[in-house]
Amino acid sequence: MTDDIAISHLQKRKIEARALIPFIKACREKLGDGPAGELIAATIDAYAAEEGAKWAERFGGDIAGLRQLAETVWAGAGGLDFEVVDQSKDGLAFNVTRCRYAEFFKELGLPDLGVLIHCNRDRAMVKGFNDALSLERSQTIMQGGSCCDFRFRRKQ
Amino acid sequence: MTGLLDDYLVDPKLSLLDKTKIQAQVLVPVLGALRAELGKERADGLVRQALRDWSRRLFTSIADGVAGSPRRKWKAIQDVFGEISGKEVEFAILRHDPEALDIDVTHCRFAEFFRALGEPELGTLLICAADFDIAAAGDGEVGLERAQTIMQGAPSCTFRYRFAPR
């Protein structure tokens, strides 16, 4: 529907969030935080998996493609600063040291919504990108960590 | 000149139509999930309330940032919004004088998009409603009536602005 729109990933996420935030707040009031969160997460995950599949087509669904995705899309237009810790054909480890996505949600005073609609979709994205890969992450800047430690690995 | 609405647009280089498409792309599936949970009527009611409140607050806050009379606030916002939304519509000005501005929009790409998507009400909330929230900035000095819109299935949108005597 919007594949042809030239815009940075950061700006796209901000535009989505502007419309999603009032919607999610209303859902939370009506359904309670837990059920609203589940409903939103399930939908965002499906959307993220589709996005992951499209990115795999564009960059190739392997570790090298994943790195290219992180460098050109996620970090595009200054969205992220990150340092690659390790890369092999079976894994990619990098630490995000500055995250403008987190800064955006924190400025709005809504890092919990940032976790829900931004960070948590990464696992579903990987599933769509290449289901043979997995993502582990013990902390994120959005949740107050000093960095986001992305560890992508080929599943055993 | 889009400075006044930079925050609303997020990225001034992006057209209003594309911005709205990005929002629809993420809202439509979430709305679908909510309808499955609550039923269409309750879900749509919830979304209507949430998006109306959001749009009202947004334009109230933009109007608060413009100095001068309500009429001046309305004009400042309308000039910018008219410029960015006007790119996506064809229209005819039927009357323009100190008391009234009558515009018929005869072709609207926002309506085409949302009607093709089968979600004209979402389009009404995300786009059409803004005209009333902008008119509200003209508090008491600018009035808007619009009997029909293309988004709702009519052949034209009939904007009828009325201005209080200065």
Helix content of chain A: 55-70%
- Average pLDDT of chain B works out at 93
| Secondary structure: helix percent of chain B | 55-70%
SS-derived structural category of chain A: alpha+beta
| Order of secondary-structure elements of chain A | HHHEEHHHEE
Please name the CATH architecture of chain B.
Answer: 2-Layer Sandwich
Name the shape of chain A in a single word.
globular
**Which outline of chain B best applies?**
globular
CATH class category label of chain B = Alpha Beta
Which key features would you list for this structure?
heterodimer, A: 156 residues, alpha+beta, Muramoyl-pentapeptide Carboxypeptidase, domain 2, 4-stranded antiparallel β-sheet, 6 helices, 4 strands, globular, B: 166 residues
Could you please describe the fold and organization of this structure?
Chain A has one domain: Muramoyl-pentapeptide Carboxypeptidase, domain 2. In chain A, helix 2 runs parallel beside helix 6 (121-129). Chain A has a four-stranded antiparallel sheet. Chain A has helices at 9-31, 33-59, 63-74, 100-107, 111-119, 121-129; strands at 80-88, 91-99, 133-136, 148-154. Chain A is built from six helices and four strands; from the N terminus they run H-H-H-E-E-H-H-H-E-E. Chain A is an alpha+beta fold and 156 residues long. Chain B is of the alpha+beta class. Chain B has one domain: Muramoyl-pentapeptide Carboxypeptidase, domain 2 (2-Layer Sandwich). Helix content of chain B is 57%, strand content 18%. Chain B has a four-stranded antiparallel sheet. In chain B, a hairpin with a 2-residue loop joins strand 1 and strand 2. In chain B, helix 3 (40-64) packs parallel to helix 6 (120-136) and helix 5 (109-117) packs antiparallel against helix 6. Chain B is globular and about 50 Å long. The two termini of chain B are 27 Å apart. The relative contact order of chain B is 0.17. The chains are: A alpha+beta (156), B alpha+beta (166). The interface between A and B is medium-sized, with 29 and 30 residues.
